[in-house]
Amino acid sequence: MNRFYCLLLSCLLAGTVQAQSELTLKTRTYRQQHERQLLDEFMGLLALPNVVYDTAGIQKTADYLAGMLKRRGIEPQRLGGKTKGVPPAIYGEVMVPGATKTVVFYAHYDGQPVNPNQWADGLKPFEPTLYSASLDAGGQPITLPKTGEAINPNWRIYGRSTSDDKAGVFAILAAYEALVQMNVKPSVNLKFFFEGEEEAGSTHLNEILERHKDKLKSDLWIICDGPVHQTGRKQVLFGVRGDINLELKVFASKRPLHSGHYGNWAPNPAMMLARLLTSMKDEDGNVLIKGFYDDVTPLTDLEKQALAKIPPVDEQLKKELGFTVAEGGGKPLADLLMRPSLNINGFASANVGKLAANVIPTSATAALDLRLVLGNDAQRQVQKVIDHVVAEGYYVTQQESITDDERAKYPRIARIVAKSGYNAQRTRMDLPIAQTVVKAVQSTVKGDIVLQPSLGGSLPLYLFDQILKTPTITVPIANHDNNQHAENENLRLQNLWDGLETYVALMRL
Predict the structure, then answer these.
(1) Pairing assessment for the beta strands 425-426 and 239-251 based on DSSP bridges
(2) Model confidence band, residue 94 (pLDDT cutoffs 50, 70, 90)
(3) Rounded to whole angstroms, how far apart are CA atoms 472 and 434?
(4) How many angstroms separate the CA atoms of 70 and 62, rounded?
């Protein structure tokens, strides 16, 4: 390992406090003079439905992005793979005379599915609404001020993809425009790559990267996705967890049964599934599936040092979220994010609430989410789950329907279907270009930033390693309490403004 960069990282990990750069202060002045103009464009982007499975909405969003590039003097291109009908990656580039390095800035423009009925009264996913504070803090809807009127940085915008990930798209493009307006030349060649299928697992991203290898050549990809640290500090993330989802369904009777006539006799699939799931984890959240942790790549010494310097937030979060005992046997959240996990995202059987009936249901289904760390293989991790279910006495199939012969032969039947997934990725913290990124982000704040070996969430960044042989570093901007992937998603305005300053600095690496 290069001694110079070891010493540099050691200084950063030791908590060296730096002053904000002149460029950051200049960017702040620019933003203060253009806040309303910036918000108008952002609100226009947020108003476009972008659920990943909504083909028409995705196309309109892609068109809007192409227009944003064009307005900035960047010729937009739609990059596709070999599969037809896939959302394109919206691409543009700015080649800077004299630049010796090229950086690709990535964000995704698609969003998670929405259930409007779950959003708070007065909120609609694709009608972005400004609030005086978070809903939890009693925030109330407010009208966007007129040009020149004060805009409170603690106000929040509510709407789907405000934080995940239209904020990233907008911060990147707004940063480039700010440089142009301030007459500041980027120090690196800039390439912009906005994906349209991330929330569906980036199923065709590999095709796009393979087909456009030459166009996408660079020294680094900077990823704008995810939240800042829970303390509110900016952070630089050197990796992401992988992810793969499973549907686990257990079967019982061929038809629903009266719970009075058949209770205590007919097998209840909801109870069967509940027992099966509890066999997978202990009370501290440790996964009991054989070999689940066996192939984890150990952290390096530098990664351990970075982890030890992360400010503790566990007590803050428990109070904020309303529970007293966390999983993990007392280990801090930051440490637990370095382990693979198994989560239950949903559990369904018969009806509840006003629709509840006195029945024994025919089946029960759980949606499982496996988060992977470096060393895990997605398919191998799925097989471990399947092997566990078999060891619990189940016959496992992938078929949609269960035959009478199977019912006669096997007392316990489960169907397990894995969706597409991807492995984890981690970039070495001692790379010279990684340290350049750290210094750039540090230059935008007065206090320390947080360095994390890996984000808790997932992105298909292993593809950039595998196909393009290029390192990736993630620099998120959203507030940690943004409700991404859920109802009432929101973005604190100060996080958007901070993101603008961060990405201006990153274009001057």
Answers:
(1) antiparallel
(2) very high
(3) 9
(4) 12
Q: Which residue is associated with the tokens 């700015």? A: 94
Instruction: Give the other-Cβ count within 10 Å of 297's Cβ.
Output: 11
Report which of 69, 60, 93, 108 is spatially closest to residue 204, judged by C-alpha positions.
108
Q: Are 12 and 18 in contact (CB under 8 A)?
A: no
Q: What percentage of the chain exceeds 90 in pLDDT?
A: 93
Higher pLDDT, residue 10 or 405: 405
Question: What's the rounded Cα separation, in Å, for the pair 144 and 461?
Answer: 37
The shares of helix, strand and coil residues in the chain, as percent rounded to the nearest 5, are 35, 20, 45
Sheet holding 490-492, edge to edge: 141-142, 129-131, 156-158, 490-492
Residue of 386, 384, 345 lying closest to 367 (CA atoms): 345
Write phi, then psi, for 452 (nearest 5 degrees). -120, 135
Give residues with Cβ within 8 angstroms of 333, minimum separation 6.
313, 314, 317, 326
Instruction: State the sign of the Cα–Cα–Cα–Cα dihedral 316, 322, 328, 330.
Output: positive
Alpha helix stretches (DSSP H) within 131-216: 166-181, 205-211
Inter-residue contact 190 to 103 (CB < 8 Å) = yes
> Does the pLDDT value for residue 12 go beyond 80?
no
**317-366 pLDDT per residue, tens:** 999 999 999 999 999 999 999 999 999 999 999 999 999 999 999 999 99
pLDDT digits 0-9 by tens, 153-187? 999 999 999 999 999 999 999 999 999 999 999 99
Rounded Cα distance, 8 and 3, in Å: 9
Average pLDDT for 253-266 = 97
CB 493, CB 157: distance < 8 Å: yes
Whole-number Å distance between alpha carbons of 483 and 491? 9
What is the enclosing helix (H) or strand (E) of 12? helix 3-13
pLDDT tens across 361-400, in order?
999 999 999 999 999 999 999 999 999 999 999 999 999 8
Position 18 scores a pLDDT of 60
395-397 vs 413-418, strand pairing mode: parallel
